[in-house]
């Protein structure tokens, strides 16, 4: 039986000339495929295998490296809109039809943009550790966060400090950083990190007029975060949910940016309930 820690990486060439690396777990059925969009500097290996395995118990789950990230070809773009267009090209290359989206952190910005650019492609959306474009206070990260995850050399220790509130809550880090024994993805490069941070910063330039854009996302949306996220504060989850026409919000206790890994069983159950309702 395949698990996320053992399943092989596949590739597909899209119409935009990019060859995308992806992993595909679970079975096609009555449910739409669930496409996952990854965080800053993250690649295929940086999803928690335990979370993916639970999500894939009832549906097909697809993770992928967007353009220029990990083993995917091309150059990483420096805007969320371009990342969304590249993700749309990947979905089209797999001929998935309508999908559900789960975007985490930077991936949640991309998920919003996909739903706005190509609304007929998206049935439901899960936004983890997210914020709307143009919100005040989102223009760059705090020095603490930049020091932990924004340096030229990324470290597991830096991510643990931002993703988890305290050491005893960081057991998921061992799964994320140490479960896969072969077939590892290529790490994100420094040029990818710079381009992605430029995209994050552009997204956060204060512009309250842009807050109206998310009202165009009419699909049901589940917004979630940890109560102690230092990277994207939980107040942005409430702001985002309040702006969306059809949204529910949940804040997970004693959890930071990686709440979905720490609370993987509960989060997966909440996602399944939301997608199946």
TrEMBL record:
Gene3D superfamilies tied to this protein: alpha/beta hydrolase
Pfam families per the UniProt record, alphabetical: Abhydrolase_1 (PF00561)
One MF annotation (Gene Ontology) recorded for this entry: hydrolase activity
Residue span, AB hydrolase-1 domain: 33-263
Keywords tagged on the record: Hydrolase
InterPro entries membership: AB_hydrolase, AB_hydrolase_1, AB_hydrolase_fold
Signal peptide: none
Record protein name field: Alpha/beta hydrolase
């Amino acid at each position: 039986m395949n698990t996320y820690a053992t399943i092989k990486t596949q590739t597909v060439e899209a119409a935009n000339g990019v060859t995308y690396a992806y992993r595909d777990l679970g079975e096609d059925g009555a449910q739409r495929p669930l496409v996952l969009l990854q965080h800053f500097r993250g690649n295929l290996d940086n999803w928690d295998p335990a979370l993916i395995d639970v999500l894939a118990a009832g549906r097909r789950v697809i993770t992928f490296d967007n353009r220029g990230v990990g083993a995917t070809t091309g150059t990483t773009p420096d805007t969320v809109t371009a990342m969304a267009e590249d993700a749309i090209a990947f979905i089209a290359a797999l001929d998935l039809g309508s999908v559900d989206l789960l975007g985490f952190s930077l991936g949640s910005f991309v998920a919003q943009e996909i739903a706005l650019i190509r609304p007929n492609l998206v049935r439901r959306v899960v936004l983890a550790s997210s914020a709307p474009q143009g919100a005040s206070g989102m223009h760059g990260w705090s020095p603490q966060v930049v020091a932990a995850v924004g340096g030229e050399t990324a470290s597991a220790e830096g991510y643990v400090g931002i993703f988890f509130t305290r050491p005893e809550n960081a057991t998921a880090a061992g799964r994320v950083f140490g479960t896969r024994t072969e077939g590892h993805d290529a790490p994100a490069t420094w040029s990818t990190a710079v381009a992605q941070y430029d995209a994050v910063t552009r997204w956060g330039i204060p512009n309250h007029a842009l807050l109206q854009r998310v009202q165009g996302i009419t699909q049901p949306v589940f917004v979630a975060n940890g109560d102690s996220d230092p990277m994207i504060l939980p107040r942005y989850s409430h702001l985002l949910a309040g702006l969306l026409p059809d949204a529910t919000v949940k804040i997970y206790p004693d959890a930071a940016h990686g709440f979905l890994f720490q609370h993987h069983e509960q989060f997966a159950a909440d996602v399944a309930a939301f997608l199946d309702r």
